[in-house]
């Protein structure tokens, strides 16, 4: 069963800043830093012919056009102060505890991601009441014609809170026409967009929505213990999870991975805050240019401009977005430099077989974005396979260094209890 497509309807009062992320099947979530990291290239300490140091490159005319993969970064020179990384004490939220409540919440989210029913269906009545969750298809009409962004299928609505279940709220009155309708009914209702909605075609406009009521559900989630092997196989079979026992094991594994990710975030922040890292301006600019180019190529379609895309999806100007990207990239690069240096100090070596498995996992987890390793290299090398492969090899070592530091950390929850061991290794494909 394919995962449900994102609801791209424009009727939400507040849009989520989801952006485009690398698509990873939810049931096989694993921490792949390079997939979710900013798209960029770094050559690390490889001594390729023609490569130049950051200082040398910065003195040359036209250096602003250099690719980041052409820089030769010496971690020891760029990290002038390295924080003590042995036995870092960190505290993570109790929200990351692995218990029955967490498993149930995770299951609900996974079922929703796969477009499966995550809540118990109501079968003893067929009329929608206040307090129900209702699955609908809907289409919006302005002046009798369906308008772009006004349609969606198999959307689960919380009619009481006028919102998508687990998602954004809708414009006032959107779910009201559904109350009192029966399963199978088609009902209509008029709603008025706010004057400041942010879409010139819809600001202050009254439109008509037609809803097809497809099912009534309670707010009680489908329980993990109640899922039969047949149900599990129907939803998750293509992901290799076919039994309730396998699903339970996978959820526990994924929750452990989420905890690990939270620990890593804390450790990265600690190391950045307590280390001193110098990033060459030319190198940062090259990374920024590459990211903007990649973001634009992947997201800005159909003759739209970056300016219009950012305004429509994030309510940001290009300058505001660029400043945010630059900030994020700065932290990303500092992380690479710091843990690249730790990898050298800890004498972490490249394991070619493990690296190849690492790349193979990126391919398999990309949900069709990549079909072979060379495509991965080209993607992360901004069109240059050799530079992309070098970047990924360095990123692999960086992730191994992160694993090493995380394994040594003293991790507790906010209530003072010890966190479980999460040492599984983000850099190793599983």
Output the CATH homologous superfamily of the largest domain.
Trigger factor, C-terminal domain
CATH top-level class of the largest domain: Mainly Alpha
Tertiary shape: globular
How much of the sequence lies in strands comes to: 15-25%
Mean pLDDT: 85
Return the CATH architecture of the largest domain: Orthogonal Bundle
End-to-end C-alpha gap? 23 Å
The total number of structural domains is: 2
What string, H for helix and E for strand, traces the elements in order?
HEHEHEEHEEEEEEHHEHHHHHHE
Given the structure, what is the number of helices?
Answer: 12
Poorly predicted parts: 1-8, 14-64
Radius of gyration over C-alpha positions, nearest whole angstrom: 25 Å
| Total strands | 12
**Structural class per helix/strand content?**
alpha+beta
CATH-defined fold name of the largest domain: Trigger factor, domain 2
Helix content: 25-40%
Short key terms for the protein model shown above:
single chain; 430 residues; Trigger factor, domain 2; Chitinase A, domain 3; 2 domains; six-stranded antiparallel β-sheet; 12 helices; disordered N terminus
């Amino acid at each position: 069963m394919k995962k449900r497509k994102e609801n791209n309807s424009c009727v939400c009062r507040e849009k989520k800043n989801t952006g485009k992320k690398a698509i990873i099947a939810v049931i096989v979530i694993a921490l792949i830093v390079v997939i979710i990291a900013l798209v960029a290239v770094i050559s690390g300490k490889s001594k390729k012919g023609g490569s130049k140091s950051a200082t040398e490159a910065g003195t040359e005319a036209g250096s602003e056009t250099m690719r980041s993969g052409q820089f030769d970064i010496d971690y020891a020179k760029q990290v002038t102060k390295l924080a003590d990384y042995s036995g870092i004490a960190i505290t993570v939220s109790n929200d990351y505890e692995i218990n029955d409540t967490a498993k149930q919440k995770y299951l609900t989210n996974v079922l929703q991601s796969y477009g499966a029913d995550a809540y118990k269906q109501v079968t003893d009545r067929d009329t929608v009441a206040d307090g129900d969750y209702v699955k609908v298809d809907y289409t919006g009409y302005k002046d009798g014609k369906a308008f772009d962004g006004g349609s969606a299928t198999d959307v689960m609505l919380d009619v009481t809170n006028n919102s998508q279940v687990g998602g954004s709220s809708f414009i006032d009155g959107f779910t009201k026409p559904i109350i009192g309708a029966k399963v199978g009914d088609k009902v209509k209702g008029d709603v008025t967009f706010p004057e400041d909605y942010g879409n010139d075609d819809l600001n202050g406009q009254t439109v008509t929505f037609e809803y097809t009521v497809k099912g009534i559900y309670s707010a009680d989630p489908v329980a993990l213990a109640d899922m039969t092997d047949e149900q599990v196989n129907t939803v998750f079979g293509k992901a290799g999870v076919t039994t309730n026992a396998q699903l339970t094991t996978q959820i526990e594994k994924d929750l452990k991975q989420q905890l690990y990710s939270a620990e890593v975030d804390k450790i990265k922040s600690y190391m950045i805050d307590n280390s001193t890292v110098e990033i060459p301006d030319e190198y940062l600019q090259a990374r920024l240019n590459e990211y903007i180019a990649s973001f634009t190529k992947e997201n800005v379609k159909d003759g739209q401009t970056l300016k219009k895309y950012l305004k429509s999806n994030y309510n940001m100007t290009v300058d505001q977005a660029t400043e945010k990207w630059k900030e994020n990239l700065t932290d990303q690069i500092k992380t690479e430099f710091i843990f690249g240096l730790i990898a050298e100090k800890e004498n972490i070596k490249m394991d070619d077989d493990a690296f190849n498995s690492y790349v193979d996992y990126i391919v398999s987890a990309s949900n069709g974005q990549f079909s072979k390793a060379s495509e991965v290299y080209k993607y992360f090398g901004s069109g240059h396979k050799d530079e992309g492969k070098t970047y990924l090899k360095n990123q692999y070592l960086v992730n191994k260094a992160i694993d090493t530091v995380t394994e040594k950390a003293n991790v507790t929850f906010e209530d003072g209890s010890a966190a479980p061991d999460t040492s599984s290794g983000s850099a190793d494909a599983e």
